[in-house]
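WARN  no MSA supplied for this record, continuing single-sequence
INFO  ligand: flavin-adenine dinucleotide
INFO  echoing inputs
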Amino acid sequence: MTSYNTVNITRQDEIAPGFYLLSFKSPFLVHQAQPGQFVYLRCDNTYDPLLPRPFSIAMVDGEKNEVAILYQVVGRGTALLAQKKELDRFTVLGPLGRGFTLPPSGRLFRPKGGPKRIEPLESFPPSFLRIAVVAGGVGIAPLFFLLQRLKDLPDLTIEVLIGARSIKQLLLGPEVKSLSPQNKLHLATDDGSYGFHGPVTEILATLLKADKMDLVYACGPEAMLKTVAGLLTKYNVPGEISLEKQMGCGVGACLSCVCKTKGDKENSFLYRRVCKEGPVFPVQEIIWEE
Ligand SMILES: Cc1cc2nc3c(=O)[nH]c(=O)nc-3n(C[C@H](O)[C@H](O)[C@H](O)COP(=O)(O)OP(=O)(O)OC[C@H]3O[C@@H](n4cnc5c(N)ncnc54)[C@H](O)[C@@H]3O)c2cc1C
Ligand code: FES
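INFO  complex generated
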């Protein structure tokens, strides 16, 4: 059962100015967590700040029984967390929420004119499922755990697109590359200080336009996710995105984290809880507020 556990920090490093990678022991999370799920974490052992803070599970190390989160210092909770050292303890609830759907095994069948579908391996000649993983800034966190899982699946080609404001905020590029040499890495910065000069979504647009992608996963700032959603609708490619909302209870009771989604009937909508039905949603289900 998911309940609060006290965990020991095994390591904390500032991997870029203001960005921290924090590892802690948790055999339970190692075995239970799925990519895209998050933990609700008390940043200090006092009740100040009162509420825990949500963080995506960024890495899982089965050999060491460790889990890592990657976070940016933006306020009081994360500033307190950044002061924690090895062997310090904190409490954590998780894994919470609904994560990414892993691609089905099998190879992609692309009938002329018909919808794409997945068929068993032996039925069709090789045709790898082409996946784009698109991260904006610290949005790489849940996607890195996803990449750890995708690495073990056969017959995928994976393009990893990481964007940031500048070179200082480009996170985990070398780690993505060493995770699997097959991962093709594209880096982009808004100020042109490294890689492609411009938004990472422009690289995605080029890949989609060339019909090079079958499935897209994304996490990052809302403006980036809106652009990703628009592109996937335009090119009719399925995808899943991870949303962030400020949270109260973290477990589905307070409704403070809702987002607007399409309902069952045409033109209908319903509010769904990011902490419970999300944070990962199929991209076509989200109704973006102005
Ligand atoms: C499901 C989920 C997963 C997340 N995963 C990560 C992660 O892997 N790494 C990471 O760095 N952050 C992640 N976040 C965001 C993280 O929870 C907030 O940055 C954190 O709670 C801020 O706490 P604070 O006390 O430092 O800042 P606060 O003092 O609470 O807030 C500082 C500023 O950040 C804004 N803010 C706070 N929470 C959020 C939020 N959820 N979304 C958008 N803006 C917010 C506030 O409006 C305020 O302007 C995630 C959020 C959600 C909902
Ligand atoms: S945070 Fe309370 S319902 Fe989501």
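The CA atoms of residues 43 and 290 lie 32 Å apart.
INFO  checksum written, moving to next record
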